[in-house]
Amino acid sequence: MTRRGRSPVRFPEAANGEQVGGGLSPPAWLSFAIELMRLSKMLFFCEFHSPARRSILPFPVSQHHGGRKNMKKVAALVAGGLLLCGGVGVAAADSRGSRCEEFSGKLTLEQGPCDEFKAVMRKERIFEDATFLPAGTPAICFSGTIADAQLGGRQVEASSLSALTANSFCLLDPPSCALPPPAVPPFFTAATVVTVAADREEPRKDKELGQIFLRDTAVLRGDGYAVEQLIGVGGTKKFSKASVSMEIRGYETVGADVSGTICR
Q1: Beta bridge partners of 145
Q2: CATH number of the domain enclosing 191
Q3: How does DSSP classify residue 27?
Q4: Which is more confident, 23 or 210?
């Protein structure tokens, strides 16, 4: 029994954290509230048992009834304020929780000029840290269409722009280091822009949902089959704060499967 005959709330747990005896672990908010109550008691105890008995409060506190009453009010205010802040923090975290959606489609690439890719780079100031092949600026570029694209089960329109970037993977296959452009080495990296727009039949004034900026790492087999991993590094509009990962598998010049997850 505790003071005033009250029994403490117990949630039986084993030493390893597992539940025992059918008991339930306390929810996080209740554990937080219990700790705050302990903190308020500690503040009260320290105030009246400190040798200096100094108070940081804007009003005097002493051991007479009025001082104890004021201190109890402060303890209650501290606990209540922290509980309120904790509750607001939890609510804010929940409201900012990511909504993840699956992205899929069929990608077909075509090698071509880098003008569009460079235009996006200049406008969005993206990929400024990248070193492109073969001489530092985008020179080996591809444009692509993503057919039957879906985002979260909804039909969308999607396209891509990409440019090869420099890496040291050719050290694993020295002859590929000497491949002249526009040849693509068997191990390659790239910078990619995927533009996603609402389906043309959807009644929206601004159909573009945004652009996703990704960095790619890929392996290209001799017969043209590629496996590519893409990680998001930025975006615009609906994807400005998105976390993105994608994978491409297949023959990209005739149609490769694209799958991934977009959380925003």
Answers
A1: 108, 159
A2: 2.40.350
A3: P
A4: 210
pLDDT over 90 at 140, yes or no: yes
**Do 245 and 150 belong to one domain?**
yes
The more confidently predicted of residues 71 and 250 is: 250
Whether residue 170 contacts residue 133, with contact meaning beta carbons closer than 8 Å, is answered with no
The structure tokens 């996006």 sit at 120
Among 78, 95, 112, the domain-final residue is: 95
Q: At what angle do helices 28-49 and 65-95 cross, to 10 degrees?
A: 150
Rg for the chain, CA atoms, rounded: 30
Q: What angle do CA 117, 120, 125 make, to 5 degrees?
A: 120
| Angle at the Cα of 72 from the Cα atoms of 67 and 73, rounded to 5 degrees | 100
Place of tokens 């008991």: 23
Q: How far is CA 65 from the centre of its chain?
A: 53
